[in-house]
Structures
1.
Amino acid sequence: MFNYKTYLLFLGASLAISIGLQMILPFPYGLGAALAIFIVFPLFLRKRYMSRMRGYGNDSGTGGGFFGMGSQGGSAGVRYVCLVCNNKHKGGSCPRCGSKMQRADF
Ligand SMILES: [Zn+2]
């Protein structure tokens, strides 16, 4: 997802920092801190990348909808809202009341 070169750079930096921590801190603490860095760094990178993508999305006007759909849980795609009973379903007729009146819900 995010820039692989940047990831490797951060990985190398975190490796150097974790080796430094091994020298400064006693054994269990140094290892724990190193592991924390290896877990936190990629998360931090991804968070920064996602917020940057969201910024681009606002510029083009379509990114927000794309991410909104993604956060609904993958395979759902476009959902429809029944205009009669407000039930959310996957299209066609409403499974609750059978009405075909619906609008797309992004
Ligand atoms: Zn309905």
2.
Amino acid sequence: MDHYLKFWGTRGSCPVSGSQYTHFGGNTSCLEIRYGANLAIIDAGTGILPLGNRLLKEGIRKFHLFFSHMHWDHLIGFPFFKPLYRPDVEIAIYAPKGDGRAPKELFEELFAKEFFPVDFSALPAKIEFCSMQPATPVRLGDLAIECHLAHHVYTTWCFKIKTPKEKIGYATDNEVELPFDEGFVEFFQGCDLFIHEMQYSEKEHLERKGWGHSSPSVILPFIEKIQPGRWIVTHHDPDHTDRDLHEFCQEIKQKTPVPVEWVYDGAVIPLKE
Ligand SMILES: [Zn+2]
Ligand SMILES: [Zn+2]
């Protein structure tokens, strides 16, 4: 099978490990999108470590890596992504600007010697920073990847991935705003597959308003509005154990007519060829 999505990291905020996390896993955000010969990666949380190892084994040397934003959970696996340490590797990076700072500047800071032993400029791989703008899809063969501003703490992207057969929405960090942002509704309307976080319970959300994540009371009406074919929940809170997530899933299934599932590290969803 070479047309699929693979979730290499489904945890939000901070990686976790322990017997209470064995089902959903503890690696932070990383999604592989494979459509025949075309490959895209979204985010470089700790899930990108096993993905990098697998892709090197496959002999892949060219990578298109999209970043939703630069919070730790989406970036912290990047210095440990083994393809960076090979001179025959080429990596195209697409990332939103920070608060007035170019992505390259933020990467250089990540590799400052106080944080990491290898300087960014000394990495053997050829790294290119590519521009990406909302409403202008990046085309990789049959894949088209488009970004839209999410409602998060600073400039953050969510994505829409189009194949010739399906539309997939992907938003790991988004606090749905009420009333809805019409542009946001339009962007995701009619997705076959909608991957969107619901990191907080209502109680947690009350304590963490403005932290950029959603709870049932904001995301459920949004799901009703855009009517996706299927809803996949990712970016699980580090405090939520396997038991908590199973219970959360059962509770939400009673509240939405849209098929919903909680995704886990290593999950593969086939795409239509
Ligand atoms: Zn996050
Ligand atoms: Zn974030």
3.
Amino acid sequence: MRELEHLHLQLRLHRHLCFYPFLSRALEYVKEAGFTLDDLISSVSARIRAKERVIEAIRTGVIQRPVIGDDTQAQTELLSYPFARILVSCIRDSYLIRRYALAEAKGAYKRLIEDLRSDDSIIHELSEDLGIHAEFSPNLVLLPFTDYLRLTANLRDKRWKLVNRSMVRGKVRLGMTEFVRIVQEAMYERIVKDLPLDVPDDICNSLSEHIEHIRKELGVKRKNLEGLHTPPGGDPGSYPPCITNILNNLKAGINVPHSARFAVTAFLLNIGLSVDEVIELYRNSPDFDEARTRYQVEHIAGVKSGTRYTAPSCATMRTYGNCVGSDEFCEKVTHPLSYYRLKLKLGK
Ligand code: SF4
């Protein structure tokens, strides 16, 4: 009797769990409801939605949570998550894994912001499940600084630096919106953990049609990214190795330190790229925020002040660990922009 009541309770919570399918309770629900891997593979609707999830991640970088009409739809949404993880694991592409995990985390973040408008209990549940030991009071969250440091390690904006935060009893003081942004990082950690899964070959083979479709989308995305990195008027073949290295990291969705972002932005603006073209280069970054990026790029371009920053010299690049892969041209220059001009002049 108690078991039945428990399952009913889980079913009532069903709809809400389908928006956060990485939570332990969502996993428990799938187990307790008796779904097997075979059920998953043979569920056409879950399979279709799973493929949609991965394709949405590739195309837009955010897996939007849909409007859920009934329990069947909620169940499909919930089951499509483990299925999407299987699809991504069969492809075994590190760029896809990061992009997919980030798109799931961003989708959940957007949903969380909406949910918080009507009920703040969800943030307590998520925090507990994700192992974040926060203290809540109206409009204020206190986070142990060890959790804070771990979860903001990939957030580059100055406002996240510990020196810019106020502390209360050894805990970092945060507004609710800031805390939710940090929860997104924890969701990403949870989702990316264990990927790629070790999926047996026969299962991957049985999904070959979907996998092929996803691979095609991935190919198109990669081509577009290549295009973005071949700016009109610029010659990427003449970029110095340091700049090429930073661009490759951005393309791969790897978090790039602030000093490297400044260097690549100033370099590209100085060789003639527009503010919009430079912003596009950051779109793959795990912490991409268009308004913030625009503000920073426009600041370096001197849109308001009229004074454009120049790129850092080789000496500064070395100091910050951004001088990577120097070659024979580097011996003749002291500045990445001189490298570019020299190589263009020599036509090499
Ligand atoms: S020596 Fe200068 S131009 Fe060459 S890789 Fe280092 S920073 Fe870049």
